Each structure stands twice: as C-alpha cells, then as structure tokens.
Amino acid sequence: SAVISQKPSRDICQRGTSLTIQCQVDSQVTMMFWYRQQPGQSLTLIATANQGSEATYESGFVIDKFPISRPNLTFSTLTVSNMSPEDSSIYLCSVPGQGAPGELFFGEGSRLTVL
Amino acid sequence: AQKVTQAQTEISVVEKEDVTLDCVYETRDTTYYLFWYKQPPSGELVFLIRRNSFDEQNEISGRYSWNFQKSTSSFNFTITASQVVDSAVYFCALRKDYNTDKLIFGTGTRLQVFP
What we know:
- The complex is a heterodimer.
- By secondary structure, chain A is an all-beta fold.
- Chain A is built from no helices and 11 strands.
- In chain B, strand 10 (88-95) and strand 11 (103-105) form a beta hairpin.
C-alpha cells in the first residue's frame, strides 16, 4: 500500500485567489491522479500527472485553471487558479496500487471553501 | 458510454441490521473491472474490493459480501450485522479503459448506522 499526504487538509479562500495543493507519496509512482469531489457529489478525475511530461487533462478541465506540477516520482502539486465559489470541493490525490489493476490509494483530500 | 449508477443516495439502519448497497453499471467493453470504495468521515477513500468481468463468483470477506450479476450489470454490496463504524459513503467504480488506472465513480451511497 502507499501512504499519501496532502497539504493543506482544508482551507478557506477568497474569490479570485489561487491555492496550491501538495501531494506527497511514500514511494515512487509513475502516475498520480487528481480528483475533485464537489459537495455531495461523486469523484471526477481532473488530470493524470506524469513525471517528466505535461499532465493529461480530462474533458472539462484545462491547464490554465488547474496547473499541475510533477517534479519527481513522489510529489505533485495541483493549483486551483482564480477561484470562485464553484471551486469549493474536496481535491484528492491518488496513486495506483502495486497489486490489483485499477486499485487506487487516496490521500485524505484537501477541502477548499471559496467565499 | 461508461457509467456507474448508485440509485440510493442515503440509507439509514440500526446496528446489527443487514444492508445492501446497489450498483448498476454500463459499459461496452467485454473486459472491465468493478470496484467498491469506502469514504469514512475522515475523507480518505479506502479500497474494499475489485472484481473483473470474467469472475462472477460472489465474494465474502467477513461481514462484507459482493454479488456480481453480469446479466443485470449489477455489482451489489451487502454488509451483514452492520456496525456504527460502517457509517460512511460507499462508492462503486468502473475502470474506464483496459490499459489504464482511471476510474469512473458512481455518485455514492451514504450509509448511516445508528446504535
């Protein structure tokens, strides 16, 4: 299993500002995933962060709004830019497990509230 | 299109009752994987089970059991003798592509177990 740490765990932000979420994994992984969970909703994949290349974004998500960095195999950041109240969500970092295909390990998430 | 439907948004039971969480999926793939994840109040998703499309055997793990019915595209999850610690949001998920770890999540079912 992988241990994933996310920072911050929660934050309250002002409209128009940007916030960077950090994700640290205790082992080297090729892929890291960023998910968004809006209040009362399911998880939606934002992008896949690959080390050494640009992140791959899902439909509806763009790099200008959600820039991602992946400087090494254990760390990634997701920035939520120019925030609006609609960005209030839990943002979760996840990595694939070493065993069962599709099994993912998740961090505890970063709960953002935008006022 | 690939889709996961969890029609039950919230279920409340009293401790020691059995409870079944429904999951219906749609996919055109002949090979696919289904998952259940638990999200306790702490926010971190916990992997519970993976089932591939070739294996229709039901599985039991302690108080948990899963019923995979390909004929009805369902992958239901039963908790026997529920406990307060089972209170969480449970997500059913489908692996999006064969050669990827991307998951499509259902909207989740919030289970509340009262003492």
